[in-house]
Amino acid sequence: MPTPPPTPDPAPAPLPGTAPESVPEAAPQPAPTDLNEIERGLSRLTYLAGRARHHEHLKSVSGLPLDRAAVAILRRLAGNGGEAPRPGALAVRLSVEASHVARQLRHLEEHGYVVRVPDPDDRRAQRVRLTDAGQAAIDRVREVSRRSVEEALADWSPEELREFATLFRRLVDDFTTRSEKSADARPSA
Length: 189
Prior knowledge:
7 helices; single chain
C-alpha cells in the first residue's frame, strides 16, 4: 500500500493582537541607471551653476555689480510676465526669508533696477517692478549665460540641440508642476 503524501504543517496561529497572514510589502526597487545618471547630472549642473566662481564670471563679463541673490530676484521679476509681485510673495517664490528679500530690494532700488509701486488691491501694500535699467541688467546677465551655454554646446548638432531643448523644457515643466503640487499639498500655517 502506497504511503499517503505528507500533510503540510498547519500555519502557526497569529499572535494575539496581530493581523492574520499579512503580506509583507514589496521592497522598493532600485532606481534605473538612467534615472541615477539624470539625478547626478542635474546635481552637478546645479552645483556648477551656483558656484561663486560662475557668478563672478557672470558679474565680470556683464559689468554688473550684483550679487547672486540680487540676480536671482531680477531673474524672477523678469520671468513674471510683467506681473509685479509683493515682496513677501517674491520671498516665497525664491524660498528665502522675507527680510533677505527686503534687504536685496533696497539695494536694487538704490541702484535703479527696481521700483516699488502701490498695490492696486491694497493701498497699504507695495509691489515690486523692474525698471528699464533692471530689464537691461537682466538682459545682459542672460546674454552672458546664453553665450556660456553656446560655448559648452558648440560641438552639438542642430538636431541634438533641438531635441535637448525640447526634452529639457519638458523636464523643467514637469519639475515645476511637481513642485507646485507639493507646495499646494502642504498644510498652510
